[in-house]
From TrEMBL, chain A:
Places the protein is found: Cytoplasm; Nucleus
Organism from which the protein derives: Castanea mollissima
UniProt-listed Pfam families: Actin
Protein's recorded name: Actin-related protein 4
Domain of life: Eukaryota
From TrEMBL, chain B:
Lineage start: Eukaryota, Viridiplantae, Streptophyta, Embryophyta, Tracheophyta
Protein name (database record): ADF-H domain-containing protein
Example of a GO MF term: actin binding
One GO BP annotation of this record: actin filament depolymerization
Family of this protein: Belongs to the actin-binding proteins ADF family.
């Protein structure tokens, strides 16, 4: 048993879009940075530089992909973590994510992100602090054991705990029983929580999250001739007070993934500023006359956004809408399996025991970054009222505070790890040494 | 999380002797203690008014009602009160300790969680009792 209350624990929520890290007991994470990394292949760097000179940039991007694959095998690449080092464009730098479908697929990158959080953001020695990690409901036992191994063997943490995202969110809102609708960057997950435990069988998830909406917006704007210029691709000078001159810069060595990453940063800001969930299902004709909203891009040009303001968020409710956006055709492959938000909620509730369905209907919790979308709560409540059984009292809850919505998982973890009564729950280093990594399954249900 | 002995004693009195209409509990210094006791002649309104608007509480209420068959009955409700406006920290403490506390109180028939008064209106209580 680990009984340390004296040293505050570290709480990390490695999400698909951003990584949140901070000290337990505080009300917001200390460090929030993108959970993608920039990777430059070290081994073949010189070689690519030469081929690039001869054959131009078109071949170059292909080359990078190839070298990266081989690189994974050799494990020799230089990784850049954090919003600052990602904001700086480097030749041949690819942007990679450690996660696939919400669970960790590339352990080297995940390790690098954790390391960055400890040593550069929080400036702590992980050997001195117990560690609470938030995990997705879909985490497999193998993943959890591997996490425990890495934390105890590499970082030598004194104690560890893995808590499910949905449980932390439901606790943070004061309910031990709730249906948690977590709409994050990479995916949307609907998970019923009963008395502090996730009902695994009824968990539903879809790949439609904030990033998917951002991509839709990006493609839709592109199809209308509005190109978003990444921040690195131009220079702005003040020629006279109040007058700016924009000079385009050309970097042929920039990888496609980095260009996309930089465009997404801008597009997601547009999305956060202007998008709003429509009150009724979107249809082309009734939204054709709505007023345009201006948005000024970093390079100074102002774009006008009309129906897309409502169309993009509606993809959450009606995923097939994405197929009508030019450039998103590849979505058709996954489309049949993806359902809208209200259907996911109802399906998930129907998979639960009859006795708790009523309670779940009346405590649907909205959390995650995408949940901050304006009018999303109202729209979801309305759609659910129409589709739920008559007797059910539908109630969608969301924290009024945008920070609380966005960081609900982290906040839940922060409070849990600082509770006096929680201290006996830690999976300690001595227990790890005695029972091995598989003991995590018993310590952290 | 510890539970003060008085909580259990008062609950048994409510259950067996029907000395109280309701009991309100709060968490203080990592321990659940009795905050308020309601006498048997107090009404449901008196009970809801005793719950603070901005703080979490646990409560037990002894609800008397008459069934469709004209039969006098009573049920003991357990209510977890955590208003949206309360601090996240206290919501979390109450939510994570609820299960442990409920186990101490043997004889609860209906459980309810409420974040605003509409979720524990008399109609809902009646609906759950029948």
């Amino acid at each position: 048993m680990y009984g340390g209350d004296e040293v505050s624990a570290i709480v990390i929520d490695l999400g698909s879009h951003t990584c949140k890290a901070g000290y337990a007991g505080e009300d917001a994470p200390k460090a929030v940075f993108p959970s993608v990394v920039g990777a430059i292949d070290q081994m073949d760097f010189d070689e690519t530089a030469i081929t690039e000179k001869n054959s131009g940039s078109a071949v170059d991007s292909k080359n990078i992909v190839k070298t990266l694959d081989s690189d994974k095998a050799k494990g020799k690449r230089k990784l850049f973590v954090g919003s600052q080092s990602l904001g700086f464009r480097r030749d041949h730098m690819d942007v990679l994510s450690p996660l696939k479908d919400g669970v960790i697929a590339d352990w080297e990158i995940a390790d690098c992100i954790w390391d960055h959080a400890f040593r550069e953001c929080l400036l702590v020695d992980p050997r001195e602090h117990p560690m609470l990690l938030a995990e997705p409901s879909s985490n497999t036992p193998q993943q959890r054991e591997r996490t425990a191994e890495l934390m105890f063997e590499k970082y030598k943490v004194p104690a560890l705990f893995l808590a499910k995202n949905a449980v932390l969110t439901s606790f943070a809102s004061g309910r031990a029983t709730a249906l948690v609708v977590d709409s994050g960057g990479g995916s949307t997950t609907v998970a019923p929580v009963h008395d502090g435990y996730v009902l695994q069988k009824a968990v539903a998830s879809s790949p439609i999250g904030g990033e998917f909406l951002t991509d839709c917006l990006l493609k839709s704007l592109e199809s209308k001739g509005m190109m978003i210029k990444p921040r690195y691709a131009f220079k702005r000078k003040e020629t006279r007070p109040g007058e700016y001159q924009t000079v385009d810069l050309d970097f042929p060595n920039t990888t496609e993934s980095y260009k996309l990453y930089s465009q997404r940063v801008i597009a997601s800001d547009i999305k956060e500023c202007v998008c709003r969930a429509p009150d009724t299902p979107y249809d082309e004709s009734s939204y054709s006359n709505i007023p345009m909203t201006p948005y000024e891009l970093p390079d100074g040009q102002t774009i006008e956004i009309g129906a897309d303001r409502f169309k993009i968020p509606d993809v959450l409710f009606n995923p097939s809408l994405a197929q009508t956006i030019p450039g998103m055709e590849n979505f058709a492959e996954i489309a049949p399996s993806v359902r809208g938000l209200p259907q996911m909620v109802i399906e998930s509730i129907n998979k639960c025991d009859v006795d708790i369905r009523r309670e779940l209907f009346s405590s649907i919790l909205l959390a995650g970054g995408t949940a901050s979308m304006q009018q999303l709560k109202e729209r979801l409540e309305k759609d659910l009222l129409e589709e739920s059984p008559q007797a059910a009292r539908v109630k969608v809850l969301a924290s009024g505070n945008a920070t609380e919505r966005r960081f609900s998982v982290w906040i839940g973890g922060s409070i849990l790890a600082s509770l006096g009564s929680f201290q006996q729950m830690w999976f300690s280093k001595s227990e790890y040494e005695e029972h091995g990594a598989s003991y995590i399954q018993r310590k952290c249900p | 999380m510890a539970v003060h002995d008085e909580c259990k004693l008062k609950f048994v009195e409510l259950k067996a002797k029907r000395n109280y209409r309701f009991i309100i509990f709060k968490i203080e210094d990592q321990e659940v203690v009795v905050e308020k006791l309601g006498s048997p002649d107090e009404t449901y309104e008196d009970f809801t008014e005793s719950l603070p608007a901005n703080e979490c509480r646990y409560a037990v209420y002894d609800f008397d009602f008459i069934t469709d068959e004209n039969c006098q009955k009573s049920k003991i409700f357990f209510i977890a009160w955590s208003p949206d406006t309360s601090k996240v920290r206290s919501k979390m403490v109450y939510a994570s300790s609820k299960d442990r506390f409920k186990r101490e109180l043997d004889g609860i028939q209906v459980e309810l969680q409420a974040t605003d008064p509409s979720e524990m209106s008399l109609d809902i209580i009646k609906g759950r009792a029948l």
